[in-house]
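pasting for ref. prot 1 ->
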Amino acid sequence: MDTAIPTLDPAPAYALWAASYPAQAHNPVMHAEERAMLALMPPSLDGERVVDAGCGSGRYLRHAMARGATTLVGVDLSAPMLARATALFEHAPAMARIALAQGDLTALPLPDASADVLLCGLAVGHVPQLEPVLREFARVTRPGATLVVSDFHPVGAALGWQRDFRAEGQRYAVRHATHYYSHWHTACARVGLAIDAVAEPMLDPADIPPGARFDPVALDVPVALVFRLRRLPD
């Protein structure tokens, strides 16, 4: 991968990327991550209060609605990405209550214990330290709540992979921290979260378009870390 491309912090990166960012998985890594996330999510979210932290253009809010959730909150750092997520309102069931709010993963604009389920797809790596993020996730979820959280697998960083995109004719990368499994284990123990399940999905060759430019090693290693966590009693 070309390491000479400009690397941007998340806010300016997504300000550029938002206009072309789809509301669904749009590359082989995201397809692999999404299959694992959906497998670890509760099969029914009917009656549950669902928060999507780092919701972006609303990918997992859509999946939550498909599983019956009607009380949903999406939080994202990027106002342009939240503007993309407003398309959710056009397709939501009449009884759905959806709110979108701008906020940081370490300071979610939500009350304590306000979520039954928290989802976070491929966003925690945008924050340098994992523990403050998981501490905030624990704060906003009720005891017993389910959290399903994913990140890019550390093996990708070891291989020099970047999260890159093209905007206005230029290729950019988004700055992304590497959080190892040991970081997750330690942080969860400190903030009151239990690790109930871990998935390390690999690419499906069927997701790779003909002629795509990618590192062939990617077929032999996991591309994401996906955790199902449980909020422990206080």
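and prot 2 ->
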Amino acid sequence: MDSALSRTSRPQVVYLPETPHERFKILIAGPLGIGKTTAIKTVSEIQTLHTDEIMTTAAAGTDEVAHQELRAKTTTTVAIDFGRLTLEQAGIILYLFGTPGQRRFRPLWDDIAEGALGALVLVDTERLKESFEVMDLIEERGLPYTVAVNAFPHSRTVNPHTLRTKLDLDDHTPLVVCDARDKNSTLDALIALTAHLISLAGDTPS
């Protein structure tokens, strides 16, 4: 397995703050090629860890790569992506774990999800059905989540109410739009998830 630090960008060394911070383990989830690795690389304050393998013909018939956004895809995450983000004003540190998007990695997915407080689920309006399995896994574990529509160049703009209906989202589940390539946009999506988690924690009887 090719486990390596991201070479696409080299953030400056950022140490953990000395002041007390809450620490949240967050999953970045979604189907193959949805932008999980990109999102983590975009916002991480440390050099990201990723575990990619070259896609081969052995995946034919298993991984669906016919969609135009996936035709040029040559690698896939087979273990995790990892990054870290400090939300200084909120006093929170997010440990970001990107999960494989294919069903054959279910046992590994279960291990990665252990201890997570919530998930940011990336979806594409052109491939909504491919997100159902991941959302089912998250709901089976009882994890709260926020859905972020990744703004691919080809994606159609869909009315939020229609999206909620198609994804069968509960009214309390946040739905946002982001561009995984843009730091501020991805940061806003993670802030929406964090606010959702804090809100739920406040509703939990002590």
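Residues 2-203 form a domain with the Rossmann fold fold (CATH 3.40.50.300).
The chain has one domain: 2-203.
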